[in-house]
Write a structure and sequence with these properties.
Blueprint (H helix, E strand, L loop, with lengths): L4 H6 L9 H15 L28 H12 L5 H14 L3 H5 L6 E2 L4 E5 L5 E5 L2 H13 L24 H13 L12 H13 L4 H8 L15 H4 L5 H10 L17
Antiparallel strand pairs: 1-2, 2-3
Helix pairs in contact: 3-4, 3-7, 4-6, 4-8, 8-9
Length: 268
């Protein structure tokens, strides 16, 4: 074991959290005490470090960056309709990756313009489907989804067409889109929460309150939404517009009338 554990930590290739050094030192001193190298357990002398989990601003893309990602995914000739609909649900409605792949055909109510979301903790929410999202889902179901008995909306392109076991497919789609558009990932791990955070930041800039942002993202605890209170208000001030937030809020409302008997919906 190195006599200088601090050199090992500082030479690490990966950045570490504030409490990593204290944790490693505590473990090191506990080992020395267990081996009898020290008469007392020096680990008790290492003070605890506060875990500031929300000290970092949310990683997000600019509005132009989000649109570039969506446009890049949509232009894919092989499975652009599916991938575009997946990312659009995250970018516009704030769905989590696991919620996107969990959508079933019966969860879409085309007449009322609503989508049932199977959220965290086995809780279900009903969200209005915007025109943009509805058109993306309809195009995928009509033109690209392969024949299958699987009731999951999003299925694999290779036969037999089946649903995805987890949300990693959404993360992979986003990572490839960032690379295709020349946008450097903000972290080595790229998750779909990047688009979810980007939506929240757009809502802040549009003048939405933290309570309204929590409602859109379906946070069960208001403490989860306080992360966005740390945004640079001075930097956001020029773009904060209650009028723009009213427009975005109207986009999240269901259509004013259901589909008429003469209109068609995707054949499920």
């Amino acid at each position: 074991m190195s006599p200088y554990p601090d050199q090992h930590l500082l030479a690490s290739r990966h950045p570490y959290r504030d409490k990593t050094v204290a944790t490693h030192l505590r473990t090191f001193f506990q080992y020395l005490f267990w081996r009898g190298a020290t008469a007392t357990n020096l680990a008790r002398c290492i003070p605890k470090t506060a875990n500031r989990w929300n000290a970092r601003l949310p990683r997000h893309l600019s509005p132009d960056g989000v649109e570039s990602v969506l446009a890049s995914v949509r232009s894919n000739p092989r499975h652009g309709a599916r991938d575009y609909a997946m990312l659009l649900l995250t970018a516009r409605l704030g769905l989590r990756a696991a919620e996107v792949i969990a959508i079933q055909l019966d969860d879409i109510d085309w007449r009322t313009g609503e989508l049932m979301v199977r959220g965290k903790g086995k809780l279900h929410d009903r969200l209005p489907i915007t025109v943009e999202v509805g058109e993306a889902l309809s195009r995928y179901l009509r033109e690209e989804r392969g024949p299958t008995d699987c009731r999951a909306v999003f299925v694999t392109h290779r036969a037999p067409h089946h649903g995805f076991k987890d949300g990693q497919i959404v993360n992979a789609i986003l990572k490839d889109a960032l690379a295709a558009t020349g946008q450097k990932p903000v972290t080595p791990y790229v998750g779909s929460h990047l688009l979810r955070h980007s939506l929240a930041v757009q809502l802040v800039n549009a003048g939405a309150s933290l309570g309204e942002i929590g409602d859109v993202l379906r946070h069960r605890s208001r403490s989860s939404t306080t992360l966005y209170a740390r945004l640079d208000i001075d930097g956001c001030a020029p773009s904060r517009s209650p009028g723009r937030w009213r427009e975005m809020r109207n986009e999240h409302r269901p259509p004013s009338r259901p589909l008429s008997d003469g209109q068609t919906q995707p054949r499920l």
